[in-house]
Design a protein that fits this description.
This protein has about 140 residues and is an alpha/beta fold. It is built from 5 helices and 5 strands; from the N terminus they run αββααβαββα. Strands 2-1-3-4-5 form a 5-stranded mixed sheet. Helix 1 runs parallel beside helix 5 and helix 3 runs parallel beside helix 4. The radius of gyration is 14 Å and the shape is globular.
Amino acid sequence: MRRALALARRAEAAGEVPVGAVVVQNGEVTGEGWNQPIRSNDPSAHAEMVALRAAATRNKNYRLPDATLYVTLEPCAMCAGAIVHARVARVVYGAADPKAGAAGSVFQLLDSPALNHRAEVSGGVLGEESSGLLKEFFQSRRD
């Protein structure tokens, strides 16, 4: 999660919402990313999506069944959908997202019995640090 926080700071330095994500498989980082939708003009370039793409490319397989995704903010519905399709085993996130979270805050997509895959979810890991980074970013935008 500390690596994901460092990546979130990279996003912030680029003027993006500070969210970072890391995919770990068998104790090794196989993908990482940070928010990049503004820079890339790509609404799907959330940190999780970038990290999942990197891991899938490295593995030469879009399925990541043994992977853990660490992300500083609870995944949104788009990212949760990609996590389900990739068959990610576990998601660990920092800050809850009470407006758009899809891992329990607003929606519960990662553990939905209606879907063909469920991911184990752990929230609040380094949550205060993750939340603080987001609050400071948005406060600076308002000032």
